[in-house]
Amino acid sequence: MAPTVSVILPVYNQEPYLAETIESVLGQSFTDFELLILDDGSKDGSADIIRRYAATDARIHAFFEPNAGRCEATNKLLAKAVGTWCALLDADDVMLPERLARQVAFHEANPEVDASSCHCYYINHKGNTLGTQRYPFIKNVAECRRVAATGEFVQCAMTGLMVSRAVFEKTGGLRSKFWPCDDFEIFNRLIAEGYILVIIQEALMKYRIHESAITVRNPFHTFDMIGYTMHCLNSRRKLQPEITFEEFMRIRQAEPWLTRFNRKRFNYSQIFFRNAGFSIMSKNYLNFLWQASTATALSPGYMLTKVRNLARA
């Protein structure tokens, strides 16, 4: 019989964390799963770790291919999956022992829900817990339908996503043109196409933050890509064709200088706010104070909104 859950694990150069990630899957209280791992052309020892674990557990199915990027690697694994549900996972993150059990039980109790995510604990490169990543919205079906009706954008934890395999296949999977915002695009595409996504309001994952992430190394490209993704999502809602990223950037560069200045100011505020959050989680209070003060000076409105959201969480 096919397993209930297919755990989807694309891997690229995650040797320091991969064994812990795989162990967290094998240690789940819910055991009716297959673990599909694709090494996406890693240049470190990731492939050797995968081979070692695949030799010890028949639930692990390992694949090794040249580098094609996270989106393509994920889609390839989804094409091989046979479970009713697909649980996505990043190769440097950690499942809490009850993650699969809690999400499967949630979907069994809520059959109209096509996909779910969760809160996550932030951890650093050593695995120390720093705080909690919360998403205090789309908590139920009614909220998801309201978001679909109003055209609001949502974000949740990709590493905590469980989605119906049939639904994921119908939507066409991840789209590499939106990387590294492919997660943001698929969440909002699911909702726009009439599927129900709900965020379970508890932490089921440990999400690792470190300086090698592209959102940390190149935040302004990420901001541009978020803008492009939102532009394409809006175009679809208006039944208009999508433009390329290059065309989108030419439009942005032709905007008045004040518009570009204010966007850059807002982006810097986002960066300082994020860094302030990491500082307070690391108990570096002096650094937190100047980062938070700078974020507030750059964009008081943004800071007020973030503080209100944190208070609601």
Description:
This protein is α/β, with parallel strands linked by helices and 313 residues long. It has 2 domains: 208 residues, Spore Coat Polysaccharide Biosynthesis Protein SpsA, Chain A, CATH 3.90.550; 98 residues, no CATH class. Helices cover 50% and strands 18% of the residues. Strands 1, 2, 3, 4, 5, 6, 7, 8 and 9 form a 9-stranded mixed beta sheet that branches. Helix 7 packs parallel to helix 9 and helix 12 crosses helix 13. It is globular. Keywords: Transferase. This is Glycosyltransferase.
CATH-wise, what's the superfamily of the largest domain?
A: Spore Coat Polysaccharide Biosynthesis Protein SpsA, Chain A
| CATH fold label of the largest domain | Spore Coat Polysaccharide Biosynthesis Protein SpsA, Chain A
> What share of the residues does DSSP label as strand, in percent?
15-25%
**C-alpha termini separation:** 41 Å
Order of helices and strands: EHEHEHEEHEEHEHHEHHHHHH
CATH architecture of the largest domain: Alpha-Beta Complex
Q: Given the structure, what is the number of helices?
A: 13
Helix/sheet category: alpha/beta
Number of domains: 2
In the CATH scheme, the class of the largest domain would be Alpha Beta
Taking pLDDT < 50 over at least 5 consecutive residues as the criterion, the unreliable ranges are none
GO molecular function: hexosyltransferase activity
Protein name: Glycosyltransferase
Keywords: Transferase
Domain Glycosyltransferase 2-like: 6-133
